[in-house]
């Protein structure tokens, strides 16, 4: 089997894992685990696991690597904070699709940083995404609630995380940067939790199992698999496959949590999905390359 096919299949698995993560997080919130304690344990488990697996690489980190990990870790903490708190006030499907808006925002953040104007596909994606967000966020009414607002804030923060991650990864290396941002995000999460939250006096075995799943599977394993897969497939395929995360998030929410799938959600989710594909691929996969015949 070709490595590219294995990589594409792996990316699909990553999307499924991340889609399940929205439901797992919602279950933990409903079980009484507060957002920032959950994030603290999630990032701590992922960071320690990465540290053990890639110890030989990580022990070579330099002092200057710590600054990049610190800055990227702050953005990761803020993004997950907005996402997790927002999930308390909205459904996993809306949270998943609105979080996916980040790939549409990224080109415009690059514009602000590099002064390179986004192309027509980016502008088209923003228009489509705006319509999709309007449908998805309102559901059966016209209220744009606190949960939807935080989910959109999360999308912008994740866009900032992507930009900063891309800036520092070449200098620091993917494994060291991933490890550092997990550790710093865990520290910031626990600091916030100690200040504003209370850890439940009783945590069941099932709840700890869910925490381990979120930390080991949807965070550490998913990041590792994505890093490996992207080395063996194209960026176009990666964008298409990873963008299905929101679709799987909705499917898991409907099947496992019994969430009602409305017409507005279907239309809005499909529009955001099209916006993501437009922004990331520019529909190049539909263009057939002309073969040149040598005479």
TrEMBL record:
The chain crosses the membrane at residues 12-29, 35-55, 67-90, 96-114, 121-138, 144-163, 175-196, 208-226, 238-257, 263-281. Keywords: Cell membrane, Membrane, Transmembrane, Transmembrane helix. It is a multi-pass membrane protein. Pfam families: EamA. It is found in: Cell membrane. Residues 8-137, 146-277 form the EamA domain. PANTHER family: EAMA DOMAIN-CONTAINING PROTEIN (PTHR42920:SF5), OS03G0707200 PROTEIN-RELATED (PTHR42920). This is DMT family transporter. It comes from Psychrilyobacter piezotolerans.
